[in-house]
Amino acid sequence: xxxxxxxxGVLVTLVALLPLAVTAQxxxxxxxxxxxxxxxxxxxxxVDGTPILEGVPFFALSGALAAPPGxxxxxxxxxGAGPDGSVIDAPVTVEGGKAYVIAAVDTVESIExxxxxxxxxxxxxxxARVRVFHAVPDAxxxxxKLAGTDIAVVxxxxxx
Length: 160
Description:
This protein is α+β, with helices and mostly antiparallel strands. The chain is built from one helix and ten strands. Helices cover 16% and strands 39% of the residues. The termini are far apart.
């Protein structure tokens, strides 16, 4: 009888904690990684010392990676150099239910992470949502125009 009561107590405790575990699992951050350093070789990306992407070439954008909310150590190193050869080593905090792009930007000499929060909400009917950012370190501010027109949808956009 004592054993049965103990088992019931354990089950009640697990059932009480289950909603907390499910909530944490249902609300991850979504993170995409972009290599936007024009003179950098292909890179490996590490999170808390663990490789998550290997051989990422210039201008590649990863698919969405789910991550529990929190702060992570992000390291970017030339392919094969390991985390000790990182050219970026920075803490990045992500919040559950939000989406991010973490881009390696600038030249190798000045490379740094750029963390951008994405708006993943559904746009109004008949409209679209587009993310535009300037990632060319040696170019002046730019205008982004609709193809075949002089209509600037974004004007005087600076680097980063």
